[in-house]
Amino acid sequence: MGTTTPPRTLAEALRARGDESLAGLLRARPDLLNPVPNDITQLATRAGTRASVVRALEHLDRFALQTAEALAVAPDPAPYGTLLSLLTGDGLDDGDQRDDAGAAVTAALPGALATLRAQALVWGEDERLRLVRTARELLAPSPQHPSPTGLGPTVAEATAGMSPGRLQEILTTAGLPATHDPVSAVAALSALFTDRTRMAELLDTAPVEALSVLDRLVWGPPYGEVTPNPTPPVKWLRDRGLLLPVSTRTVVLPREAALHLRAGRAHHVPEPVPPVVVAAAERDPQAVDRAAAGQAFTALSTVEELLKLWNGGGPAILRAGGLSVRELKRVATALEVTEPVAAFWVELTYAAGLLASDGETDERYAPTPAYDEWLDLSAQDRWTHLITAWLPATRVPGLVGGQDAKGRALSALGPELDRSAAPDVRHRVLALFAELPPGTAPDPETLLRRLRWERPLRGSSPSGDGTDLRSRLALWTLNESELLGITGRGALSAQARALLDEGEEAAAALLAPLLPEPLDHVLLQADLTAVAPGPLERPLAETLSVLADVESKGGATVYRFTPGSVRRALDAGQAAADLHAFLAAHSRTPVPQPLSYLIDDVARRHGHLRIGAASAYVRCDDEAVLNEILADRRSTGLRLRRLAPTVLASQADPGSLLEALREMGYAPAAESADGDVLITRAGARRTPPRTPPVPVPEGPPVPDATLLGAAVRAIRAGDTAATVVRKEPAEGGPSSATASGALPRTTSAETLATVQAAAMTGSAVWIGYVNAEGAASQRVIAPVRVEGGFVTAYDHTADEVRTYPLHRITGVAELAEDGTE
After folding, report:
1. Is pTM, for the whole model, over 0.70?
2. How far is Cα 417 from Cα 397, in angstroms, rounded to an integer?
3. Strands of 790-795's sheet, edge to edge?
4. Distance between CA atoms of 4 and 576, rounded to whole angstroms?
5. DSSP state letter for 367
6. What backbone torsions phi and psi does residue 820 show, to the nearest 5 degrees?
7. 3-class DSSP state for residue 524?
8. In 3D, which of 657, 799, 641, 820 has the Cα closest to residue 714?
9. pLDDT tens, 549-590?
10. Non-local CB neighbours of 192 within 8 Å, separated by 6+ positions
């Protein structure tokens, strides 16, 4: 075994990796697996495509990206020392203030290089580091795409179109010996700019105004506009090549000169260490847990109240999809929250699968059957269900009210709200919370700085307010976490930590003792109100919500009894005696006499009038009541006509007639065609079974260990088939193509004889094969049996036993002695 030869290509560098390293590459860049590459060469080619490189760069942290940017402006290949110098400087600038920063860069650079190597963005040994060509093109400077480092092109690049005469003028003015060779002239000028001593002497002769011009260009952008008659300072710089022309009106500061002025640094401020998330406040962890639990209970109540609003069928869906602005305002008013918060709750119920479209012709939103199942869960399990639906959701309620790329308004539950980065941001924000001690509330600004350092290129397109998408997602995550009770008073709760670390059961166990126990009683008062001193048991709460209206919410809920609410309970099939018994059974105080009178009075009048379908009719045994209705001016629009002493007919539909008479102060009841009173129970409209919306993935999913192992084996096997050493045919013998990528060509008889011989000796051969779809491939097989026009063999490429028709084998070649391993 000789010494290891340095790799000459990315494919060779990947081929020298171990299986774990290849699996790590595929795990970090799963887009390379779709489909599985045939061999290492194809994997390297795919890893160098623009789309894949852009995706890989977007997943780098700031220092790894700065390292790649420094390599993009370094010579290709670049020694490790050159790269380190670009990141730390040459150490010749004034003062020692940068010593600590240089030490941090020196310590962090090996890790950053390891990351770039692991993702196949950098390859080669330390003395010959190479950035993949596509990444260099993306990060290198150009007039159309200035470098992130702020550096311009090299002297050689900037003078590529310059005449030899002009180059001689620059050399003469700069005090360099004249040469008629443009290559030598460029080399001489570059050598001047990279020589610290001679460059310092040249700049010592520069006018102060010229140095001011350089100060404006040194950290970028390096381009500037000039007039046909430039000022003396600009002319001085241009004559000495410190400013080189890009066009008739544009000049550029060459890279070598800028690096001298920067003391050799590619970046103004290298950031090798991630920013620290600073604590904004230290709170009692138990107080945090209690506050979060209280907000979690409020979240459950809000979701129930929202879906109760749409229990009998919700608002119609807009033609373009989503909820109208007017309906969102109604939800906000009913929930007593702002419209952005209302949009969050609506989107959360949709993400949790509790709300969906009913799919009818007149399409509307309504609760799903899963909502009823959710209601049957314990409070803590209902909370974990909401959180586990929120964490992976890609729909972003914070976008509601904004505009899409075409200027159209974004509506709640509408399209265009998916942002695939949202789950990653949520998980990362909560992970940063979890790294702090219990009870610690982080400073939001330092948290945002940390997120920007970790993914500087992600969501880098600013919004209208100048904030990038990733930062806005983080801010929305902070607000939504507080609304959901994940955080309390700005700090992560213990139950949320348990959910992230141990799962739903552990979180539910910690939350359960902190939630209030449901009560089985209320306190009735003489002013026709009932006070619920805490959350009520579900049957009690549901019955009371029909019998009374909620007047105020908070630590205690106040219900008010009105004629309309009592009539609603009677319409639902309750009798006055049932209501009296219900109140007596669930009140810790005696039933007030005014409330008993109210129930009896409404019950006595309830159903005295009967509404049926004619278009509609009114029936009453008391003729005086009908006379009173006919005489009332408010009934004019109903167009009533007496059919009999106890019957009135109307051209209005029964529902409209029912509501109109109730507004006039009567208590009519609807009746069926058989004359029976129709009972209108609380609505319970449900959609057909619906699945929650599927999150929009951010690129290909991360493969599991089984898939990674199989992919690596397939790539290795394919690489073996593509690079295996084949025996050259004997002179005058059968022809077999041995060029890389070419299929072997042999006659049918030669193919059969070679395959049979391999089966007898147990050796492997290299074949060309064309499948039924006409796709050609190379394979290394070990024949086991040859009969009936088929060869059964162990296929090293597929790592399995397969059978091949002989007539589809284009040719066969024996492997060299060392080519089977």
Report:
1. yes
2. 7
3. 800-805, 790-795, 776-787, 765-770, 809-814
4. 95
5. E
6. -90, -10
7. strand
8. 799
9. 888 877 788 999 999 889 888 887 788 898 999 999 999 999
10. 174, 176, 198, 199, 202
